[in-house]
Amino acid sequence: ADIAFLHDLTRGLKDGQPFLLMEQTPSSQNWQEINALKRPGVLRLWSYLAVAHGADSVMYFQWRRGRGGCEKLHGAVIEHAGREDTRVFREVSALGAELQKLGDSVIGAAVEAKVGIVFDWDNWHALDSAVGPVRDKKYLETVRKHYRALYEKNIPVDLVFPDSDISRYKIIIAPMLYMVKPGFAEKIEAFVASGGIFVATFLTGLVDEHDLAFSNGYPGPLSRVLGVWVEEIDALYADQSNTIVMMDGSGSYTCGRIADLLHTAGAQVLATYASDFYAGMPVLTRNTFGKGTAYYLASDPEPAFLDRLYGELLDQSGIHPVLNTPQGIEVAVRVKGDRTLLFVLNHTPNETQIDLGNDMRRDLLTGESVRGVIQLNGYGVCILEQHASR
């Protein structure tokens, strides 16, 4: 999921256009604390993972290991011995032959997402520079956590930015948007008023583009669309937690790290804190704004809570995965003309059964027509093409 996130982020920088992955190691890196080898099949799998998320080319670093310098032990297609009778050389060659067969059938295909997650480097830098309420803000980790909840449901996601056009999306998620730049709140208000769903979290709307706190408190210019205001912000130690209790009695979930002490200003309370002096205060709210809704999540929840929340929001928006798959099996979609391309990727070492349903599709890597239940080898890949009027 973290690798897919970075590919989607790169595609977002090109406003959804295909990109080139300039460097991938065929075997190992050399600059991490531990530099494990890619297991047999993972080079092929991760190459197609990049293509599935919008890459039109995946290049290697390095062709042959340099004899000196800081990357002399970095992975390469050809090692210092200069031999071609090696596992890595065979895998690279086999993938090259497969890509020749694939031809240009994927080149230029688009990813059509209905969910956007806001990511902002200025916001990240401002958060990291803020002294309090916790030292390690974990902005990137938090964005990835929300991304993962959708990734694991096989839902395409675009990474968008404060100046992006968001009109084509049904759901916009903005984790920890501490810095709200001019025009963004108005853009979100228009998006929600026209029927969209907006999700904001703790540490949202504290400062403007100059890193100056908003004089109307938090969440600043997003207060109107969210229908809430934050009185205080609590920071929890690593061994502390609170509990999110759903108002309808449908369950409870652990939360921690940050806890906004929240008041409603028109929003409906969906869940409350269970403990500490702010027990009973809102932790999840929903505000109706025009034809749409805006949600505020006041603490950092366990993954199961995000799985539930986004499952419900996807259902409300009519967004469904093209395939439901077992844990560890990813399905990503690219579209080219009247053709839909399904990338089915097995991120586990185990052979797995996958139900493709009754629609007939052609596997571009084998040329076979398939439907129903198929077997996918450990770290296996299939690319399924389906023609349809769109």
Computed Rg: 23 Å
List segments where confidence is low: pLDDT < 50 over at least 5 consecutive residues.
none
Main beta-sheet annotation:
11 strands, mixed
| Total beta strands | 20
Give an account of the 3D structure.
The chain has 390 residues and is α+β, with helices and mostly antiparallel strands. 23% of the residues lie in helices and 29% in strands. The protein has helices at 2-13, 42-52, 87-102, 121-129, 139-151, 184-193, 223-226, 303-317; strands spanning 19-24, 55-60, 115-118, 157-160, 171-174, 197-201, 228-235, 242-246, 252-264, 268-273, 282-289, 292-297, 299-301, 329-336, 339-346, 352-355, 361-363, 369-370, 373-376, 381-387. Strands 3, 4, 5, 6, 7, 8, 9, 10, 11, 12 and 13 form an 11-stranded mixed sheet that branches. Strands 14-15-20-17-18 form a 5-stranded antiparallel sheet, covered by helices on one side. Strand 1 (19-24), helix 2 and strand 2 form a beta-alpha-beta unit. Helix 5 packs across helix 8. It is globular. It starts with a helix and ends with a strand. The mean pLDDT is 96.
Show the helix and strand layout.
Elements: H1 2-13, E1 19-24, H2 42-52, E2 55-60, H3 87-102, E3 115-118, H4 121-129, H5 139-151, E4 157-160, E5 171-174, H6 184-193, E6 197-201, H7 223-226, E7 228-235, E8 242-246, E9 252-264, E10 268-273, E11 282-289, E12 292-297, E13 299-301, H8 303-317, E14 329-336, E15 339-346, E16 352-355, E17 361-363, E18 369-370, E19 373-376, E20 381-387
Parallel strand pairs: 1-2, 3-4, 3-5, 5-6, 6-12
Antiparallel strand pairs: 7-9, 8-9, 8-10, 9-13, 10-11, 11-12, 14-15, 15-20, 16-19, 17-18, 17-20
Helix pairs in contact: 5-8
